[in-house]
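We give the entry.
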Amino acid sequence: MKDFKQISSKDNSLIKLISKLQTSKKCRYENGLFVLEGLRICKDALDTGTVFDKLIISKSALEKLSEDIDILSENAKECIEIPDYIFEKLSDTKSPQGILAVCKMKEINAEKIDINGRYLAFENVSDPSNLGAVARTCEALGVSGIILSNDGCDPYSPKVLRASMGTMLRMPLYILDDFAKDLAKLPLKKYACVVDKDAKSIKETEFNDGSIVIIGNEANGITDETIAVSDSKITIKMTGKAESLNAAAAAAIAIWEMMK
């Protein structure tokens, strides 16, 4: 096991930075860093080639989980031990395991997108659980990558990373600053999934390689600007009195139809 540097003050600059990384999207993107917390997601990160910039371990975890921590430490540039009470203040979970890794964000470049791929685009998703669930569905069904608008919830937030169960570390991810404008530049056919009786049924839509299915915000759907740059409007026809579906459920159906 690597040597662990000890930090015992909650006022240490690194401790303050990690605290901000846990809560602030602005801080994460300004520093190009995000936090993974928990043994499972940190072990999942090893399989993706993620390198830990810092591995932060509580005193009790170092005693209880020494074998697992030994493996994690080999993938860390620096290993640090902190008292349990400081770790509890840093933790974003109710029952922390005492394992936390600070990692560098992946390079995000929409210009490198595979023009023959099949993608799910999510505009202004607001619920971390929805984004995490959709990410898992994308991975399970073989989607080429996930495209997000910059104004939605952060895919590197602790809640999304937990909800995705590590998928966000494995899936190609593209974040667009100006969603409609940047989406229009991509040389793929764009399908806006809307609640519109005049839209084409998704069951009657033939998806080819080079496709993007767009799902909108949970409450407001897809913006008019994004619909305007889409090639086709599609809808999930429903029976009974239901007027709409949960965003994650709609995305799962859309992904299934695109990939089948």
